[in-house]
C-alpha cells in the first residue's frame, strides 16, 4: 500500500492553488508547477449515493475549491471566472498561471447529459486551446465514457480508486471529436408559450431561438425555432420511446432508480412492453420512419438529396460515436470492399460525417449483441434533414444524447423540420481502451476519402452562419436555475 505522504506528494501533480480558483485570494504558489492540473465537476445526484461519495473523496485529496458540485455551481459560471482570472494573471506575467492554463484537464462525473453539458460550456468559451475532458461513468448508459475507454460501470469512490482515475487522466491522450448542431422548427403550440418551452417538454439542450434566416420559408406564420447541439447521437422512433418511458417512470418514482443495475434492468423491461418487441416482423409498423418523415442528406456541401428509408425501419439513429444504448455500435465494422463499393468510410469521430443507421424493432436491435452485429446502414453525411407533414401519426419520440421527448407532429397543413449539421470540434481524453477512432491516427483503419466531404460553411447564408456561430453553452445548453440535475441521464 502507498503511504499517505507519498500519495499526497503524487496528488500534488493535480493540485491548483486558491489564488487561481478564488477571486481576491493571496497569491501563494506551490513549490512546483503541477504536471496535470485538473478541475473536477460532479453531478452529486448521479448514481444514487455514488455522486455524493465521489464528491467528498475528491475534495479530500485535492483542493476542495477545484472540485465542484454541479447541483450548487453551474459550470459556465465557474469556467468563465477561472479563465478570466488566468487571463488577468497571464497579463501580469504570471508564468505559473500560464502553465496551469496550458496543461489544464477537466474531469466530469455524471451521466451522458452531464458530460454533454460540460462540453457545451467549453465549446461556448471558444478558447484557442480548450481543455480536454475525461468522463466518469455515473449514469445509466454511459456512452461517452465507454467510447473513450473510461468504462461504463460505476467507479469506486474510495481514495485509491480516485487516485487510480487521476493517474489515468494524467496518462490519457487527447482526441478531437465532431460536434453537431441541431435546429428544429415548428409552429407554436396552440396553448402555452414557446419560451420557456411549455407546454412541450423538449430536452434542456434545445432552446427557443428567435433569430432565423430571412430566406427560410418557415420563418413566418408563427413558426418557432429551437436549437442546440450534441456529441453522440440523435435518434427517433422506438429507442427514443423506450427512453421516454424510462425517464417518465423515474420522474414519478425516483426512489426506485438508485442503482445502476436496477436501472438497466428496468430499461430492458420497458423495451419489451412498449409494443416494439414484435412490431414490423411481418408487416410495416404504422409508425415506421418512412411514413412520418421525408429524410434528406447532404453528402456534398450545398447539395441535398433524398434518402430512401425502407418501410420496415421503425427507428433511426444519427450516430457520431461508436457507443449507443450502453455501449453497442449500431454501425459495426463493415468489410472494406463493401463500404468502398457503397462510397462509405470507416466511422471516424473527427471526419465531419455522421453515420445514419436504421432498426426494424427491438428484436432487430438484439443483433447488436452478436459479434459484428449492426443495424441497417443507411448513409454517412455532413448534414441530415427530417421533414414531417400531416400523416400516419400525431407524434413521435426523439432523443438527443440520452435526453428523450415526445414530439408532436403536424395535424394540419404545416411542417415540422429537424436539421442536423456539423459544427466544430471539442477535445476528449482517451485511454488505451478507447473505442473511438480518429482519421488522423495511423493505427486507425484507412479508406479513400472524398475531399468534398469537408465541413466548411461554404454555401450557407449569412444568417445561417450567424446562427451556427452562436451555437454554444450560453445559448444552447443553458439549463434553467430550477432544473433538477438528477434527471440528467
UniProtKB/TrEMBL annotation:
Gene3D superfamilies: 2.60.200.40, Probable inorganic polyphosphate/atp-NAD kinase, domain 1
Keyword presence, Nucleotide-binding: yes
The DAGKc domain, residue ranges: 33-186
Record-linked Pfam families: DAGK_acc, DAGK_cat
Broadest EC class assigned to this enzyme: transferase
Ranges of biased composition (kind: Acidic residues): 454-465
Top-rank taxon: Eukaryota
Polar residues bias: start-end ranges: 441-453
This protein's name: Diacylglycerol kinase
Organism: Gossypium raimondii
Amino acid at each position: 500500500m502507498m503511504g499517505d505522504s507519498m500519495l499526497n506528494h503524487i496528488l500534488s501533480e493535480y493540485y491548483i492553488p486558491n489564488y487561481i480558483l478564488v477571486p481576491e485570494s493571496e497569491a501563494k504558489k506551490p513549490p512546483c508547477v503541477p504536471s496535470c492540473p485538473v478541475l473536477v465537476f460532479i453531478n452529486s445526484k448521479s448514481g444514487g449515493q455514488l455522486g455524493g461519495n465521489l464528491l467528498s473523496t475528491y475534495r479530500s485529496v485535492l483542493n476542495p475549491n477545484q472540485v465542484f458540485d454541479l447541483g450548487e455551481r453551474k459550470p459556465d459560471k465557474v469556467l468563465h471566472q477561472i479563465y478570466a482570472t488566468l487571463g488577468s494573471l497571464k497579463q501580469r506575467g504570471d508564468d505559473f498561471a500560464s502553465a496551469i492554463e496550458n496543461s489544464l484537464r477537466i474531469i466530469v462525473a455524471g451521466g451522458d447529459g452531464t458530460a454533454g453539458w460540460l462540453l457545451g460550456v467549453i465549446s461556448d468559451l471558444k478558447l484557442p486551446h480548450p481543455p480536454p475532458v475525461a468522463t466518469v461513468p455515473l449514469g445509466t448508459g454511459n456512452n461517452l465514457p465507454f467510447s473513450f475507454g473510461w468504462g461504463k460501470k460505476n467507479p469506486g469512490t474510495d481514495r485509491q480508486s480516485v487516485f487510480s482515475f487521476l493517474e489515468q487522466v494524467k496518462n490519457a491522450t487527447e482526441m478531437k471529436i465532431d460536434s453537431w448542431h441541431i435546429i428544429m422548427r415548428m409552429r407554436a403550440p396552440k396553448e402555452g408559450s414557446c419560451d420557456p418551452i411549455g407546454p412541450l417538454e423538449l430536452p434542456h439542450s434545445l432552446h427557443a431561438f428567435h433569430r432565423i434566416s430571412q430566406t427560410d420559408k418557415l420563418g413566418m406564420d408563427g413558426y418557432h425555432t429551437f436549437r442546440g447541439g450534441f456529441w453522440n447521437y440523435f435518434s427517433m422512433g422506438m429507442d427514443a420511446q423506450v427512453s421516454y418511458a424510462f425517464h417518465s417512470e423515474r420522474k414519478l418514482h425516483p426512489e426506485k432508480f438508485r442503482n445502476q443495475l436496477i436501472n438497466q434492468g428496468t430499461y430492458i423491461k420497458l423495451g419489451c412492453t412498449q409494443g416494439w418487441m414484435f412490431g414490423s416482423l411481418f408487416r410495416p409498423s404504422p409508425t415506421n420512419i418512412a411514413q412520418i418523415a421525408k429524410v434528406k442528406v447532404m453528402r456534398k456541401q450545398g447539395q441535398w438529396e433524398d434518402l430512401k428509408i425502407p418501410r420496415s425501419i421503425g427507428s433511426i439513429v444519427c450516430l457520431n460515436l461508436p457507443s449507443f444504448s450502453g455501449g453497442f455500435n449500431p454501425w459495426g465494422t463493415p468489410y472494406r470492399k463493401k463500404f468502398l463499393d457503397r462510397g462509405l468510410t470507416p466511422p471516424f469521430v473527427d471526419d465531419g460525417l455522421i453515420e445514419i443507421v436504421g432498426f426494424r424493432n427491438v428484436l432487430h436491435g438484439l443483433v447488436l449483441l452478436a459479434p459484428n452485429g449492426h443495424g441497417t446502414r443507411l448513409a454517412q453525411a455532413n448534414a441530415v434533414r427530417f421533414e414531417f407533414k400531416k400523416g400516419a401519426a400525431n407524434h413521435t419520440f426523439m432523443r438527443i444524447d440520452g435526453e428523450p421527448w415526445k414530439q408532436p407532429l403536424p395535424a394540419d397543413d404545416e411542417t415540422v423540420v429537424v436539421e442536423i449539421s456539423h459544427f466544430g470540434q471539442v477535445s476528449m481524453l482517451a485511454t488505451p481502451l478507447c473505442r473511438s477512432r480518429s482519421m488522423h491516427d495511423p493505427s486507425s483503419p484507412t479508406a479513400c476519402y472524398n475531399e468534398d466531404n469537408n465541413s466548411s460553411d461554404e454555401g450557407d447564408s449569412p444568417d445561417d452562419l450567424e446562427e451556427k456561430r452562436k451555437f454554444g453553452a450560453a445559448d444552447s445548453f443553458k439549463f434553467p436555475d430550477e432544473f433538477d440535475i438528477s434527471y440528467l441521464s
